[in-house]
Design goal:
By secondary structure, the protein is an alpha/beta fold. The protein is built from seven helices and ten strands.
């Protein structure tokens, strides 16, 4: 069995996999992410553990993780060897690279547009030949609410609204309507510019926005983990 781990900016997601088949998904949000990973491996020692981290991990932490498995594949800004051969630019974060690799696998010979709704909103484009065309980054859903509160003197921090009006009739509802509508207009602009692309939503707020779209959307919540399984499979085959 393989253990696949995505360490994001605010949370961790992990899954056991039998080859390319994902098993149970684990989620953790807290400060003891390394302890959580160690606890998972104490129940079952993985043959291979693949970890994609949003931020560089210290050598001490890497040593702890290597002791938890028979083979460790580590992906962060300083460890990109496992991505060799996928024809992707080095500036891509590991989670974006994994999402693109998974999209190629799920939708071969199709152009696709990947929206990842996390701390940032990332939008990546692939053509029908599987070539990466580039992508954009803008503030994520909750990041927009936080920035309004942080960078103004009088505006409140608004929670994610269950439903937002088109026009607000209070300060709080105006913020909710502005943020939600702004992201919907942003997404719609990309879809209009790429009408023939398969549209994939992933990340924590993917379902929230998919429910508001009129277009045909594929929601793949575990797209990054799928990509990590494919990266692991390619690495194991080479070695």
């Amino acid at each position: 069995m393989w253990l696949l781990v995505e360490i994001g900016n605010t949370a961790l997601k992990a899954a056991w996999s039998d080859g390319l088949t994902l098993g149970k998904i684990f989620r953790y949000q807290g400060e003891k992410m390394v302890d959580f990973i160690v606890a998972l491996t104490q129940q079952q020692r993985p043959q291979v553990m693949t970890i994609a981290a949003a931020e560089p991990v210290s050598p001490q932490t890497e040593a702890i993780l290597r002791g938890c498995c028979k083979q460790l594949i580590f992906l962060d800004a300083d460890h990109l060897q496992a991505l060799t051969g996928f024809d992707l630019p080095e500036y891509l974060s590991c989670d974006r690279a994994a999402s693109i690799i998974a999209a190629r696998f799920l939708f071969p010979e199709k152009s696709s547009c990947i929206f990842d709704f996390g701390s940032t909103l990332t939008i990546d484009f692939i053509d029908a030949a599987g070539r990466y065309l580039g992508g954009n980054i803008s503030p994520g859903f909750r990041t927009r609410f936080k920035s309004i509160n942080r960078y103004s003197r009088s505006l409140p921090l608004v929670d994610t609204p269950a439903a937002a009006p088109e026009l607000g009739d209070s300060v709080e509802r105006s913020i909710a309507a502005g943020v939600v509508s702004g992201m919907l207009f942003e997404i719609d602009g990309y879809l209009r510019a790429h009408p023939d692309s398969i549209v994939i939503f992933t990340g924590g707020d993917a379902i929230y926005f998919a429910k508001k779209m009129k277009n045909s959307i594929f929601v793949v919540c575990n797209l990054v983990l799928m990509g990590l399984a494919l990266i692991t499979d390619a690495f194991v085959r080479k070695n």
